[in-house]
Amino acid sequence: MTKPKITKLENSRVEIEQELDEKVLLSYEDKTLTKLSSGIEIDGFRKGHVPADIARKHIGDQLLLEEMAESAISDIYPTLLQENKIDAIGRPEVTIMKLARGNPFIFKITTDVMPEIKLPDYKKIAKEENKNELGDVTATDEDIAKTILELRKLRSRKEHVHDDTCDHEHEKEEKEVNEATLPELTDEFVATLGAFKTVAELKEKIKENISLEKKNAAQEKRRIAIVEKIVAEMAVELPKILIESELDKIMYRMEADITQMGVAFPDYLKHLNKTEADLRKEYAEDAKKRAMLEIVLTDIALKEKLVPDEKAVTEQVDKLLEEYKDADKLRTKLYVEHILANEEVFKFLEKC
Asked: What's the pTM value of the predicted model, to 2 decimals?
């Protein structure tokens, strides 16, 4: 096999042009003829038992050559990638340049490849960003009072859910709250909400939960700031397939959320006076950012040898499979490993 001609293209794509001696192609002839013959039905012969010379005439030389070429490319392609250290992604595009008896077989393969990236000093970037305080994450009295008010309103609606006279009222936005119509905030009322004995216990739990939510939100904001600065210092050409993959995920989640609310996605698009193509265009930049983020996190995980805890993976997979009975176990495991691996990277960056 002659040395292939490899050309780097824009948007992280490569073109591989390969020439094969006719002998290599002809080595696939008998096997390919047998394969094609197995599906032929000709009067006087049992299916799969048509003589080779008759089958050859029935199939036609051009189709036979094309099937031989396809088999040869399928076998040779992985070797081309391995020997030339090409990290291909997605489905390759194959073009037959020359395919005729008595001539060398020439074909061209174009494929997306993982981009070559050079990460900046991500530890230094993380260290600088980690110097910034998270800010005040303590729940305020106003936060607590607002949450308690929502609990009282929720209980009030539940108590009147069967009261037809309230149906029209529930359709309105509650711009004003009449305290007299809401359950009184007492120890007895609090006891109906869960494992609380007093109003003070409820307020303390609410304060704890809100503070945790604020802390998590602040940490998430800092995490985003770290990776955004890392990405900002990178120069990389993203293959379109990675951006399209992220766009597919965005559209899938959007459609799932809309459908879960009881609205058909086509009707939702009609209401917006937009097509799916319009939305994909709108979210293209977000998809690009997500693709860049995934590349950064994956590369850091590889460089720092960060892997998720196997026990944590198993527990999370079991939990998801219990909730989603029809989910594919392997896909679920890959998904969980991916999420937890990213979490390990964020934890690593937070400790820099």
From this structure: 0.68
